[in-house]
Amino acid sequence: MSRVAGVEPGQRHLNGPQTTGRDYRNLSEPEHGMRCDRNVTVGMRDGIELLADVHRPDGDGRFPALIAASPYPRQIQDLGAPMGFIEAGASDFWVPRGYLHVIANLRGTGGSGGTFGFFDAQERRDLHDLVEWAAGQPWCDGNVGMIGISYFAMAQLEAAVERPAHLRAIFPVAVTTDLYEAVMHHGLFSSGFVTPFLAMVGLTSARSDRFWRGPLVDAVRDLLRTAPLHRKFATMNGESSIALLHAALKLHHDPHPWDDLWRAMAVEHPLRDEWWDERNLLPLLDRVEVPTYLGCDWQNVPLHLPSTFPALRALTNAPVVRVAMLGEFGLTWPWGEPPRRGARLVRPLVEGSGHRHP
Predict the structure, then answer these.
(1) Distance from CA of residue 198 to its chain's centroid?
(2) Is residue 165 over pLDDT 80?
């Protein structure tokens, strides 16, 4: 069996803060190995194709799907790096226990077709189509949930307001519901975050699939799993990754659409208008009709904490809403401790790339 995250000896243990201080009880047993279908094409209603990696149990049958979607490289969500864009969730926890983990790149990122729109209406329609696509695949039992932090969390709300028929529940941790409020703090352009953010997404989107799956990234992955280095990051808050984002400003990226989006926010739309209204989820959250589990950490004041409680109040039609507020280092990266001595660490079986599922 491939590596498994859990609480038993030999399994990869999750970081203590990420359990919100609780001990796991009655966990389902890991019964499956893992396989990965790489670069699966997902058709959108307008003909554009997104790319996704489908991590799935190696047994026969159909399984419920957990979707994580963002503009960040899907290929390195298991990297274990202390960076804010490693946020899709732990495939080695869910897949051995009988879930599919579908990690997708949004339009215009990571090899997906089209142009990145940064929370626009097109992105919401794409996420609806992604949910319905997953539900109709031969490996899915028709039940779809969504997981992930930050952009992955906002993508969940984007999907839920479109009401895809097969979406059953979402778990958006660290959301931003109104892009204007995140970018324009009390009317002042917050260039300290959005400028390096767009540069980083542009930079990573320009890298090829071969690069992300190549020997250099594999070497980094192995290095980050060494116990001494891994422990060094154990209490590093995810927001500390802002320094890494600023480093992206020194590297070249294609100006389109990244600089176009920056100019739209900083120059062309300095005041709230229709451009910003299209990217405001808060008035749409009464359309969410599935169980929702919000979360955030108290230290995330600059970006996500201000949206958590307005989102809670706006989810008036969700049948169940829960909130988990995490303590210090609650959203610490990397996702967990390195494997303990004697743990089995086997790379997942790869079923192929560049193919299409019916």
Answers:
(1) 16
(2) yes
Q: Cα–Cα distance between 162 and 263 in angstroms, integer?
A: 28
User: pLDDT confidence of 340, banded at 50, 70, 90?
Assistant: very low
CA atoms of 44 and 274, how far apart (whole Å): 25
pTM: 0.89
The C-alpha atoms of residue 50 and residue 69 are separated, in whole angstroms, by 10
Q: What is the pLDDT of residue 102?
A: 98
| Per-position DSSP letters for 38-51, written without gaps between them | EEEEEE-TTS-EEE
The tens digit of pLDDT for each residue in 223-268 reads 877 777 766 666 665 555 556 556 656 667 788 999 999 999 999 9
Q: 302 burial class (0-12, 13-18, 19+ CB within 10 angstroms)?
A: middle
Q: How far apart are CA 351 and CA 209, in angstroms?
A: 16
**Residue 187 burial (CB < 10 Å; 0-12/13-18/19+)?**
exposed
pLDDT score at 333:
46
What's the number of CA atoms in the CB half-sphere (13 Å) around residue 142? 1
Question: Which residue intervals of the chain are DSSP H helices?
Answer: 91-94, 121-135, 151-161, 179-183, 191-206, 209-212, 215-224, 227-232, 242-248, 258-263, 274-277, 305-314
Place of tokens 């790869």: 350
Cβ atoms 116, 204 nearer than 8 A? no
